[in-house]
């Protein structure tokens, strides 16, 4: 739990692809280094990492590359959820072996209408199979994509059964009332809203920070928001980061994020996505960049940051 005691931002790290759509691991590692240098933790294999377009072997390989880059594993919170229980176990076991601060776990997301009993059995199956006192699990609630909500009753049951292991949740539901209820009902439970735009309201209630798509673009600004010593300074930073997020939300988020990184790093390779996603049309990219330019947004070159 100590890894989440101080509010902080984690970025669901974008995954760069080569022309043949294999992963560009050196570019991925350079980006991870840049994010950490900007004050963000790493949440690789999240939704915006295109995690569910990556194989188990690819995810394990990238986690090994992060470890080999001497990035502090306490900075890393990889996604290990999967539809198949053996895959989730393998990914979670690998994250523990790598020394990660914890794991972020989607529920199995193909079968709809599953019961809390079934979801409890899934999470318990992973935790028991990994069998490590070092494992820390954050649940991942994003029902608009998974079709599988993580209920308050399920959280209560998991925390009662695994109080040292199930330590938090990422709430990507967009339902502010749900976030408030979790903050009030589960004191000491690390609740991460998925949007930095909610931090002004969530931090005073005890939020643990945020795990945000746009932390890939503005990690330093979100880190500054979290560290702001006064409500006035927090509101100023929140205004800055929220306008950028609003611009990105008007587009398809993953291709939009990658298009922006491609522009500011001058590497068009960054714009590639794996099917079924499609990259932004040039006209859409120009419109998005014009919007960001009007906001005064700029992102330093990743390569220049590590020259």
Automatic annotation (TrEMBL):
Record-listed E.C. numbers: 4.1.3.3, 4.2.1.41, 4.3.3.7
A single GO molecular-function term is:
5-dehydro-4-deoxyglucarate dehydratase activity
Q: Has UniProt tagged this entry with the keyword Lyase? A: yes
Tell me any Pfam family this protein matches: DHDPS
Top-rank lineage group of the source organism = Bacteria
Keyword annotations? Lyase
Keyword NADP in annotation: no
Q: Which family, according to UniProt?
A: Belongs to the DapA family.
Q: What is this protein called?
A: Dihydrodipicolinate synthase family protein
